[in-house]
TrEMBL record:
<protein>
    <submittedName>
        <fullName>MarR family transcriptional regulator</fullName>
    </submittedName>
</protein>
<feature type="domain" description="HTH marR-type">
    <location>
        <begin position="1"/>
        <end position="144"/>
    </location>
</feature>
<dbReference type="GO" id="GO:0003700">
    <property type="term" value="F:DNA-binding transcription factor activity"/>
</dbReference>
<dbReference type="Pfam" id="PF01047">
    <property type="entry name" value="MarR"/>
</dbReference>
<dbReference type="InterPro" id="IPR036390">
    <property type="entry name" value="WH_DNA-bd_sf"/>
</dbReference>
<dbReference type="GO" id="GO:0003677">
    <property type="term" value="F:DNA binding"/>
</dbReference>
<keyword id="KW-0805">Transcription regulation</keyword>
<keyword id="KW-0238">DNA-binding</keyword>
<dbReference type="InterPro" id="IPR000835">
    <property type="entry name" value="HTH_MarR-typ"/>
</dbReference>
<keyword id="KW-0804">Transcription</keyword>
<dbReference type="InterPro" id="IPR036388">
    <property type="entry name" value="WH-like_DNA-bd_sf"/>
</dbReference>
Length: 146
């Protein structure tokens, strides 16, 4: 099987897993994507403890998601109403706000991540230790460029 065919097969399998789990899920895939992206931005910024960082702005989220600011704003409003994110006033710019994932939001993200953890376990069972290590290394390399 060619790589493009394997990727298509893999994507369709993960989509089926997500859709099956969706009956019990509390997040749409789009909501999940925004929350995980926001959490990743927060995590990257937390790593730079020598600089002052209160959290990402809406423009940071829109840029990372590669969407227009208006689209990000619509989703942020929706997630905020559900208590999954919160806005915090920027201490340097009164016009700006930071967007942060709440504990409730992170709890749902972790719950949804179980799909991918289960898939990783399934893959690990199909490969030797060396194949799995190499697969993980290649996937990390590819994902750095996405």
């Amino acid at each position: 099987m060619k790589l493009d065919e394997s990727l298509d097969c893999f994507h369709r399998y993960l989509a089926r897993l997500w859709n099956q789990d969706q009956r019990q899920a509390e997040l749409s895939f789009n909501e999940y994507e925004y929350l995980t992206c926001l959490a990743a931005i927060e995590g990257v910024c937390d790593a730079h403890q020598d600089t002052v960082f209160d959290g990402p702005h809406l423009t940071d989220l829109a840029a990372k998601m590669q969407v227009k600011r208006a689209s990000a704003s619509t989703m942020v409003n929706k997630l905020e109403k559900r208590g999954l994110i919160q806005r915090v006033q920027c201490r340097y710019d009164a016009r700006a706000q930071h967007v942060l994932v709440t504990k409730a939001g992170m709890a749902l993200v972790r719950k949804e991540q179980a799909i991918y953890k289960n898939m990783a376990t399934t893959i690990k069972q199909q490969l030797t230790k060396e194949e799995y290590r190499l697969f993980e290394k290649v996937m990390n390399k590819v994902c750095k460029h996405l």
